[in-house]
């Protein structure tokens, strides 16, 4: 009998390998006719198949319970795991800013330096070099190699989006249009300060009781339930009456999973827009629920009946004998004028304009600083870690953000915009210093050695 696997270090066997090993075990059982013990049969099967005895016992038990051979469970870790969820949008924007800051100092950034920066900052999570590479890829950076030096550069479309936004927002300010910023955030029931002063001389509750002291501030048992907060504001402060706070129904790692397009559009059209002055500009990011298409153009993966219905709605004739490829040819001949977002159309109908932030540039939205204030207030006041007590704290935290704070935050964002305008030119100059070969991070065949974190061999550069 051929071994199932020649290397006993394999951690995950495919279903077929399990079936072969169990077939061998059953064949030995029939051959022995009940004269050998199960333990002896398992040992003999382990020698023949190179599968450990413990694993064979496990497979036998699970097969008896399930009545069939089970496929291996999907790995939680590995390449398929989304480690970038370890960072929220604000952390990702900080990562982009950290990379750009190296260029402002005239210093070539490396992955090792960026990882070290995250480790030194107590407010940021610690991440490995491999995870840092994945996050940079998510932010639109590419790996660029020049002689024996390498760098990560920002994807062209990210730079184009940023430049377009910076020009547009500057022109709208020049026109004197009222500009409002909107966004969503979340607050957990267990939200509290991560660092507090602690009396390290108190070693136990008994010692604290005898000394007439305490063991310190109570810690939450977990994150608990979650509140989703939506609001809008400007240099004049929050838009009074626009706030919405509701309880999340599911505890996923991303609050974006809880909001949906219908819910957001209802808040946007019925609560926010009636409160804005005529001709307002509303700045938002490209979250999925902000970005539902008004008239979604069919794709090749669309259902055939949906493509046919879309063509009929456009007054385009088609025949039942056409296949999808032919129908899509008709779709491409229709001048749609470009796909538009439903939220943008709702705002336009009310006399307003929606402006989209560049991807992963939430540092250009002052409401992110506002959320930091609100959540900081909740963290300082949260004592019970119960959702019914945290919700009033959120409302109180909102009232703590004054008009003066809003003005300061908006001015800070304007300064950030000015820095980015200049920085893009600086990075162009650095990249142009020598010939370069671009290596796409999407290419899974690229050798891992090319992504070494040796500071002498690697640089990180946004373009």
Summary keywords:
disordered N terminus, 3-stranded antiparallel sheet, 463 residues, 15 helices, Nucleotidyltransferase, domain 5
Notes on the protein architecture:
By secondary structure, this protein is an alpha+beta fold. Among the domains are: 15-64; 84-158 and 422-451, no CATH class; 177-197 and 215-294 and 340-401, Nucleotidyltransferase, domain 5, CATH 3.30.420. The chain has 15 helices and 9 strands. The strands form 2 sheets. Strands 3, 4, 5, 6, 7 and 8 form a 6-stranded mixed beta sheet that branches. Strands 2-1-9 form a 3-stranded antiparallel beta sheet. α1 crosses α2, α10 (304-313) runs parallel beside α11 and α13 crosses α14 (387-400). It is extended. The two termini are 58 Å apart. 25% of the residues are buried.
